[in-house]
């Protein structure tokens, strides 16, 4: 369908005979944000690894933005198609300023030294301003990344991913270790991002998932156990059972 950005069709992946992903199907619309929940070992990380090409599935197809089957492409190609991934641990350049980190990300493959010497284009400058505003890092633009709070570092890294202009952003437990205020701000940031892009958030923090206010998919044993609004999913007896059974 035209409004579908990502379509996983019966994807499976085994590790030494153990089915980490077992016939997983999922449809994500353009401009949709989805929260992925599920107990440890449900397959959430493996699913993200498969979408980004870090792990190759044994079976199934993954269509992105039309006809392209991601399973036929490698990690670098998939990133270039417009899928960005934010891991839990931020990987910013600690000794560079916020602004320079974003400039490096905007310049992409031009390389560190070339970028810092290069006169930035008006388009890059405008984009830098937008990202600083979106991430609320404007007042910190000249600070070294090392001097940011934990939350601000995470936002900087999200900003660096946005610099690559992804259509789909995959985010792994963004609020782990954040204060309540930072958590709220992160929900706001992701909702802002999802106005123009699709976002998949893997998250354990149900308070945060509630704040996101989006459709939830609960994985279990590598497949979808339940899907829908958080209230419906968390009241589903199958979901209650897998969470209580641990
Ligand atoms: P989640 O992120 O939901 O906690 P994972 O995707 O990390 O779940 O793991 C799903 C299952 O697959 C787990 O049982 C895990 O031990 C197994 N698994 C994941 N990656 C590997 C791997 N590289 N080798 C062997 N087993 C793996």
Automatic annotation (TrEMBL):
One of its GO terms (molecular function) is ATP binding. Keywords: ATP-binding, Nucleotide-binding, Transport. The keyword Translocase does not apply. Residues 6-246 form the ABC transporter domain. It comes from the Bacteria. GO terms for cellular component: plasma membrane. This is ABC transporter ATP-binding protein. It comes from Aureimonas endophytica. The lineage of its organism: Bacteria, Pseudomonadati, Pseudomonadota, Alphaproteobacteria, Hyphomicrobiales. The chain holds residues 45 to 290 of 290 of the full protein.
């Amino acid at each position: 369908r035209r409004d579908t950005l990502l379509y996983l069709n019966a994807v499976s992946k085994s590790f030494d005979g153990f089915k980490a992903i077992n016939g997983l199907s999922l449809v994500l619309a353009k401009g949709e944000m989805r929260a992925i929940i599920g107990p440890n070992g449900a397959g959430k990380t493996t699913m993200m690894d498969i979408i980004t090409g870090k792990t190759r599935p044994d079976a199934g197809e993954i269509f992105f933005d039309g006809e392209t089957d991601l399973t036929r492409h490698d990690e670098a190609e998939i990133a270039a198609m417009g899928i960005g991934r934010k891991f839990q641990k931020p990987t910013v350049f600690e000794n560079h300023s916020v602004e320079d980190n974003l400039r490096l990300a905007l310049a992409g493959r031009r390389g560190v030294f070339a970028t810092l010497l290069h006169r930035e284009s008006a388009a890059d400058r405008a984009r830098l301003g937008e990202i600083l505003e979106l991430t609320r890092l404007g007042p910190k633009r000249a600070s070294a990344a090392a001097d940011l709070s934990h939350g601000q570092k995470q936002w900087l890294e999200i900003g660096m991913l946005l610099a690559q202009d992804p259509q789909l952003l995959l985010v792994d437990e963004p609020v782990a270790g954040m204060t309540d205020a930072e958590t709220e701000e992160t929900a706001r940031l992701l909702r802002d991002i999802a106005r123009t892009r699709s976002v998949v958030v893997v998250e354990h923090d149900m308070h945060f998932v509630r704040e996101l206010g989006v459709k939830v998919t609960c994985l279990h044993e590598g497949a979808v156990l339940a899907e829908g609004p958080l209230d419906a999913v968390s009241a589903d007896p199958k979901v209650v059972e897998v969470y209580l059974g641990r």
